[in-house]
Design goal:
The structure holds 2 protein chains of 2 kinds. Chain A is mainly α. Chain A contains 7 helices and no strands. Classes of the chains: A mainly alpha, B mainly alpha.
């Protein structure tokens, strides 16, 4: 990798630090647009099949544990909050606070992934994993019911994969924050990493109602 | 390979030496050359498959290869040519090299991501070649389900992964270009002073960024369906195979414009320089690129006219498809208008530009045939479609790519190519191309389906013509490969601006210094202002 000086200071292709910061941020925003299109394909598939198999999707959705889902949503929202505080800490040059808030963000992300793993494990126990042993009580349409869970696993799986990447990013930021690399005049990576973290959060904000809440009124 | 004369001063080629200085380079010019070598390799690899296809079709019977092998040949031809040659072709080589120079920047916004994108293409290519060597893949480059998920017994997953990875290469190139054009322009380089090559690459980048992620998720679902039977495309579980086609073409139709828009940008440059006139209707041509990028996202359903899509959807997609003809025609008419009363030179790049305009027009007009619901039912999946898109992809993109390569070669290498040989090769390619693909329009109209390794005897004359044309074409493509290499050592030394062009890339030395410009240029004139250029030259001489 590059020397410490080059990454912390102005890269050679730029004229000013302000240009460098603007460019990094714009780059991340465009990357997030590609992510929207990536998840968009899945949301499209979900929309089509939910419309086609509304009642089965409702039935399948109601087997998900809404309390666990809601708690996990809260955990993720808190992690976004600590991320904001981390960016703020970097902005005002408080190295200690930056480290603390990054650690908190990593921990909350870890809790989310742990709960997710527990939920997936439940699916195996309940025979709700698409495959030869799949069975959903209360419907003869086992095919579309499997579709719901295929979408559930694909969507939450890809979301979790993004969370894992995010945790990696946070560890990277933590390491550099520990080494005191970020100052009020240079903290772009924290800012850009935060953007990514919030995006992954927002994906979950869409996944949670679509997967957990669509048929709660039928209880 | 560079002799002393060029080596006198420091430039990007001799700024550092050794394999490491290339494999770890962050210089967009060197990365462009890495891409150039890679896609040249893939072009000739894809060409070998094309050759085998044409040889098999020389006779009506399947006497050279088996049906299974034939399916693998056309699949690999398509996969290699589309994903590993045409999509990276102009943006990743000429765009990479010249887009930063044209806007007066020292480099792209993200040099390391630029290098990463080259590695991703190479890694993706390795997966595709692994699939090829392990036994090939026979689904066609479109990977339609359920064949690709449930029945094909070939290397679908390895090929799919290869395309998935190469897709990220394309996304990152697009991302880099968008940010670079927005934020790295030299002082005075306003949006409407940008060379049209930059506009067209910008429009291309929009498609790369918005479209490619969709093929990525589609391939993820395809691999999920094939390995875990997730059911998304499987009717047995309520899934819909047509959904695959929608998702696939949502990317793959705009991908056509990823391939052809940069080519149009090259042609705008060539037509202007070699008639010494500003491009007629600059702003309209610039916006027509963006219009093509936007409209390109609204027409994917015209690939599904006979796939069980509703007739109403078909009607809408047919109607919208015609709209693409408007910005495309604007370009063709404006190039023609640019020629009017121009001081026209018939240098090799201009010959390619003429070739492009003619062949693209044929390809575009036949596109209207296939966009028409009723006609498409007749010619769908026939050689008519094959001929149509080869007129766009080969007659269009490849001609422009070669034209651009000749045009910018002196800047890239510091040396001129041999003009006589180059003119001859342009002519050979033009004739060979038409002999190869024009008979295919007739074949398709008469009912010859695509992807068959045998055919009725009465089609043989046309197939023989096509194969003969392909041999001519092969000679035409080998000639530049040889004389470009020859020119690296023996070509006449090129000055900074051998064509008298206006772009900023011509105002620095050939080959350019590592940081492109000795000092950041300040732009005071519109694009293609030949009068201002002449005035500047006079001041210098005076």
């Amino acid at each position: 990798m590059d020397s410490h000086a080059e990454t912390a200071e102005l890269r050679e292709q730029f004229e000013t630090p302000a240009q460098q910061k603007e460019i990094s941020t714009l780059g991340m925003w465009i990357f997030l647009v590609t992510e929207i299109m990536f998840f968009g394909g899945l949301f499209l598939a979900y929309a089509i099949y939910r419309r086609e198999f509304a009642s089965v999707f409702a039935l399948a959705s109601n087997t998900l544990d809404v309390v666990i889902g809601a708690v996990n949503t809260a955990v993720l929202l808190c992690s976004s909050f600590t991320m904001v505080l981390a960016v703020r800490a970097a902005q005002i040059g408080s190295r200690k606070a930056l480290i603390v808030f990054l650690i908190l963000t990593i921990l909350l992300g870890g809790v989310f992934l742990g709960v997710k793993a527990y939920e997936w494990n439940q699916k195996f126990e309940e025979h709700h994993v698409p495959g030869p042993t799949f069975h959903l009580e209360g419907t003869t349409q086992q095919g579309p019911a499997q579709l719901f869970f295929s979408l559930y696993f694909t969507m939450t799986g890809l979301h979790a994969l993004h969370m894992v990447v995010g945790e990696g990013l946070m560890l990277f930021l933590l390491w550099h924050a520990y080494r005191g690399k970020y100052t009020p005049s240079y903290y772009t990576p924290v800012d850009v990493g935060g953007l990514y973290w919030h995006f992954v959060d927002i994906v979950w904000i869409f996944l949670f109602p679509l997967l957990y809440l669509i048929a709660r009124h039928q209880h | 390979m560079i002799t002393e004369a060029v080596q006198e001063r420091e430039h990007y080629l001799n700024a550092s030496y050794g394999i490491k200085s290339w494999l770890l380079t962050k210089d967009h010019k060197r990365i462009a050359l890495l891409y150039l070598h890679t896609i040249t390799f893939f072009f000739f690899l894809g060409g070998i498959f094309a050759t085998l296809i044409r040889l098999e079709l020389l006779t009506p019977k399947g006497d050279l290869v088996s049906a299974d092998t034939y399916s693998k040949l056309f699949t690999l031809h398509g996969v290699i040519m589309i994903f590993f040659f045409l999509i990276p072709s102009i943006p990743a080589t000429l765009g990479n090299f010249f887009l930063p120079m044209m806007i007066g920047a020292k480099d792209l916004a993200f040099p390391r991501i630029n290098l990463l994108s080259w590695y991703l293409l190479v890694i993706g290519g390795c997966f595709a070649m692994y699939a090829m060597l392990a036994g090939g893949v026979d689904t066609g480059w479109t990977f339609y389900v359920p064949y690709s998920t449930n029945y094909s017994n070939t290397y679908v997953i390895a090929t799919g992964l290869g395309i998935f990875i190469a897709g990220f290469s394309s996304i990152l190139t697009g991302l880099n270009f968008i940010v670079t054009v927005h934020r790295m322009r030299a002082p005075g380089m306003t949006w409407f002073r940008l060379p049209l090559f930059v506009w067209s690459n910008y429009a291309t980048a929009l498609i790369q960024v918005l479209g490619t992620p969709v093929i990525a998720i589609t391939l993820v679902l395809l691999i999920g369906e094939r390995t875990l039977h997730i059911g998304i495309f499987d009717p047995a579980r309520g899934g819909d195979p047509v959904l695959f086609q929608h998702l696939f073409w949502f990317y793959s139709h705009p991908a056509v414009y990823i391939m052809v828009l940069p080519a149009m940008g090259v042609i705008s440059e060539l037509v202007s320089v070699f008639s010494k006139k500003p491009v007629f209707g600059y702003k309209v041509v610039a916006f027509s690129s963006v219009a093509i990028a936007v409209l390109g996202f609204l027409v994917w359903g015209h690939h599904l006219f006979v796939s069980g899509q509703s007739v109403y959807a078909g009607l809408v997609f047919s109607f919208l498809s015609y709209f693409v003809a408007i910005p495309s025609a604007i370009k063709v008419f404006n190039w023609t208008a640019t020629l009017h009363k121009g001081s026209i030179s018939y240098a090799t790049p201009m010959l390619y530009a003429f070739g492009f305009i003619g062949l693209f027009t044929v390809g575009g007009l036949t596109g209207l045939f296939v966009a028409c619901l009723g006609v498409d039912v007749h010619v769908h999946d026939t050689y008519f479609v094959i001929a149509h898109f080869h007129y766009i992809m080969v007659g269009g993109t490849l001609m422009a790519y070669l034209g651009g390569l000749h045009y910018w070669w002196p800047k890239m290498s510091g040396r001129m190519y041999p003009e006589g040989w180059a003119k001859l090769s342009a002519l050979v390619i033009y004739l060979g191309f038409n002999l190869t693909f024009f008979p295919q329009f007739i074949l398709g109209y008469l009912g010859m389906p695509r992807r068959y390794w045998t055919y009725p005897d009465e089609f043989q004359v046309l197939h023989v013509m096509s194969t003969a044309g392909a041999s001519v074409l092969a000679v035409g493509y080998l000639m530049p490969l040889i004389y470009f290499m020859w020119s690296l050592r023996y070509g006449p030394i090129a000055g900074p601006n051998p064509w008298g062009a206006t772009g900023l890339e011509w105002q620095t030395a050939s080959p350019p210094p590592a940081h492109n410009f000795d000092e950041t240029p300040i732009v005071t004139t519109e694009a293609y202002d030949y009068a201002a250029l002449a005035a500047r030259e006079e001041v210098k001489v005076g």
